[in-house]
Design a protein that fits this description.
It is built from two helices and 29 strands. The protein is mainly beta. The protein has four domains: 63 residues; 149 residues, Galactose-binding domain-like (Jelly Rolls, Sandwich); 156 residues, Galactose-binding lectin (Jelly Rolls, Sandwich), CATH 2.60.120; 81 residues, Macroglobulin (MG2) domain (Immunoglobulin-like), CATH 2.60.40.1930. The strands form six sheets. Strands 1, 3, 4, 6, 9 and 11 form a six-stranded antiparallel β-sheet that branches. Helix 1 packs antiparallel against helix 2. The N terminus is likely disordered.
Length: 500
């Protein structure tokens, strides 16, 4: 197996080096585009080298000890869509109940749509359900506090529970309940795990179970489940003063509808002048075989209230004049169905300008303000001009009568807590770095895989800025550890590996 990894590594490195050589000898590219691609390929080379070294270390360790039988598997939550699991062939679910009765099967959707769902028939057990036999990365509720499940229940007001636990063990666990509001129809139940942030075992919860009819006895009823997802609470536009994205603050756009995800990135602003002096911008390069490529937001917003704000404004650096740019408004759960599209056209080339998109000039005459909570941006819409470079920044939703000058854009008022450690894996020390946007009472604690506290590294007030602290694993055994950073009401938990 190590030989296979070695061969794969050298093939990958050869491909990347060949790509870099060919690209640098290809004429006609803009200087900034070449510089960006150079940096991206160099980064890929470094990532491949680090990935190869880490794989060798892990494979060597696994061949000599059973210590890491609980390493996370391949079924990780999708950070873009929020999908944890569904009931397709990709995931494995196992039924459990008091009497081990066969109460679960994969069936066609009861409302007639052509996809598979999970069906549970209730027994006289008060805690029956299904458990996902695919191990996740430990759930990080400092990032996504919600778990959402689509449920088709037999009656209104029935309890459904979601339980998280360490993989393969029933304890410890954390359970959240929700109530059904419709009968014999699909609804999305939301389970808020914000309180789980205070559980000392949170870094070990990597398995999920669903309990229909929780705490009750109703024999022979049919329940259906699909689309288990995680997510954040909706973002309030009012809290952000109308700013939806400024890449100095946010970077979690995701790329879709194109040939290569590397064609979108957050980069240093190559042209900081005029109306845009931001440090970071979104960079996008078009492909020649796609006329509807673009990128959307990973964040769900509160429903856009178009009675209060109805004009989107976006800073754009376009390759040419009279290019069509489209903002598409969507409902988060609809997966790109029933959109409203609003167009604008560039008036300058290779220069920053602010485009205006009036929602009421879109393809839907009267957009429903209680519908749209997500947006997509599509540069060069319905064209297929390959290798054209676009830059975007400062996406806002405003009342044009009250809008401030673009020369003084409103910055997002958002608390950005960040933490990471290097090296990882490590032996025997690693440096944990964390950034505080404001002065805060900080607790930084290391836990083992069972949730036992190993060491308290910080427990004091710290000033705003970047801080570093060293964790020395000389006196503990090899294994997976978690460090939990608490600053004010914000919490982050990260995994690290000690390899001796």
């Amino acid at each position: 197996m190590i030989l296979n990894f070695t061969l794969l590594y050298f093939v990958k490195i050869a491909q990347l080096n060949t790509f870099l050589h060919l690209y640098l000898n290809k004429g006609g590219k803009k200087e900034v585009q070449i510089r960006i691609q150079q940096e991206k390929v160099k980064t890929l080379l470094m990532e491949e080298k680090m990935r190869f070294r880490t794989l060798l270390l892990i494979m060597a360790l696994l061949s000599s000890t059973s210590l890491y039988a609980q390493l996370p598997g391949d079924s990780f939550p999708d950070e873009n869509s929020g999908l944890i699991a569904d009931f397709s062939d990709t995931y494995t679910w196992t039924v459990f109940d008091c009497a081990d009765a066969a109460t679960f099967e994969i069936v066609d959707n009861p409302d007639g749509d052509t996809y598979q769902v999970g069906k549970v028939i209730t027994t006289d057990c008060t805690w029956e359900g299904v458990i996902l036999e695919d191990q996740q990365e430990p759930f990080d509720f400092s990032v996504h506090t919600l778990i959402k499940v689509q449920v088709y229940s037999p009656e209104v007001g029935r309890t459904v529970a979601v339980k998280i636990q360490p993989f393969g063990t029933p304890n410890p666990f954390f359970t959240v309940e929700a109530q059904t509001t419709v009968a014999n129809a699909w609804e999305t139940l939301i389970f808020d795990f914000a309180d789980a942030q205070d559980d000392p075992n949170i870094g070990t919860f990597d398995q999920i179970a669903l309990f229909p009819d929780y705490g009750e006895v109703n024999v022979g009823e049919s329940w259906y489940f699909t689309n288990v997802q995680h997510g954040k609470p909706p973002i309030s536009i009012d809290e952000n003063n109308g700013v939806l994205y400024d890449f100095d603050e946010y970077t979690n756009f995701f790329y879709f509808w194109g040939e290569d995800a590397s064609d979108f990135a957050v980069i240093d602003n190559p042209y900081p002048s005029g109306i845009n002096t931001s440090e970071k911008v979104g960079w996008f390069i078009t492909s020649s075989d796609c006329s509807w490529e673009g990128f959307g937001t990973c964040n769900k917003y509160e429903y856009f209230d178009f009675d209060r704000r109805w004009v989107f404004k976006v800073l754009v650096y376009a390759p040419d004049i009279d290019r069509q740019v489209t903002i598409k408004l969507e409902k988060w759960e609809d997966n790109h169905d029933n959109p409203t599209k609003v167009n604008a056209y560039t008036t300058v080339a290779e220069e920053w300008e602010e485009l205006t998109f009036d929602v009421f000039e879109g393809t839907v005459a009267d957009p429903d303000p209680q519908f749209y909570d997500r947006f997509v941006i599509q540069p060069d819409y319905q064209a297929a001009d390959g290798d054209d470079e676009w830059l975007i920044d400062n996406v806002r939703l405003v009342d044009p009568d009250e809008d401030t000058s673009v020369e003084s854009p409103i910055q997002v008022n958002d608390y950005k807590l960040a933490a990471s450690n290097y090296p990882n894996p490590f032996n025997p020390t690693t440096t944990i770095s964390y950034t505080l946007p404001v002065a805060s009472d900080v607790q930084l604690t290391v836990y083992d895989i069972l949730g036992n506290e190993v060491m308290s590294l910080v427990n004091e007030n710290k000033n705003a800025g970047v801080h570093h602290v060293t964790f020395d694993g000389m006196k503990v055994s090899s294994g997976i550890y978690f460090y939990r950073l608490e600053a004010g009401h914000n919490v982050q938990t990260h995994k690290m590996m000690l390899l001796k």
